[in-house]
Design brief:
The complex is a heterodimer of chains A (114) and B (145).
Chain A (H helix, E strand, L loop, with lengths): L1 E7 L2 E10 L1 H18 L3 E12 L1 H14 L5 E5 L3 H10 L6 E3 L2 H6 L5
Parallel strand pairs in A: 2-3, 3-4, 4-5
Antiparallel strand pairs in A: 1-2
Helix pairs in contact in A: 1-2
Chain B lengths: L2 E9 L3 H16 L4 H22 L7 E9 L2 E8 L7 H4 L14 H8 L2 E7 L3 E9 L9
Antiparallel strand pairs in B: 1-2, 2-3, 3-5, 4-5
Helix pairs in contact in B: 1-2, 2-4
The chains are: A alpha/beta (114), B alpha+beta (145).
Amino acid sequence: MKLEKKIERLTLFLRLDGELDMHTASKVRQAIDLEIEKRGIRTVILNLQDVRFVDSSGLGVIIGRYKKLLPLGGKLKITNVPPHIFKIMELSGLPKIINFYLDEAHAFEEGRGA
Amino acid sequence: MKTNQLNLTFSSIPENVGITRLLIASIGAQLDLSLNDIEELKVAVSEAVSNAIIHGYQNNPNYIVYLDLDIAGEILKIVVKDEGCGISNIEQAMQPAYSTDPERMGLGFVFMQTFMDELRVESTLEVGTTVTMIKHLKQTPVSSH
């Protein structure tokens, strides 16, 4: 799993490349939690374009970050989800609680009162 | 009638979960399953193996997980076995949204159930857990002439 980070105006843009399972979930968890705790990041935009696999461990780390950001007044947004990954997410009910966007620009714009 | 058997014995480390997915994906391709079916098998195997490592062995890397694949005609049987702590209440463990860990969604068994045609879980405390999953392979349409 490769992670690509970019921070802009207290928003963490994180691009994941690889398979999101119990092995890689801890890496993603640590990467996001570090930015939340150390830098006060409150919006995380997760770009899943290059994610080739996800299972319940992968969904767990996403829902976990959502739950961590919620009481801090933060937000987790998901963008660029490939269709077969979305299918798994839909089964889990994730799209009912987390907002999905076409791309990072749409996710960044929303909620900024632009 | 196709028959094939594969047995994989591996350390209970997270890195190996991906290897079990590669194996089931290769078998699925060999059986001419659709990409969608292969994706679903990968998720089911990933869940069963992750459960063995996370719950059966409590993330202790010094144990062994067993994966047996058995193809007999139209039936693909996948057995994932651990010799870990066992599940005290299988019915409860299989409930959607039941999880011992707040970071997890309790979806492992739900995915296994959704993506496989049959799911059987046998568990004895301090002895281990065996998850048996069966997929009925679709018969290749026979040409009428």
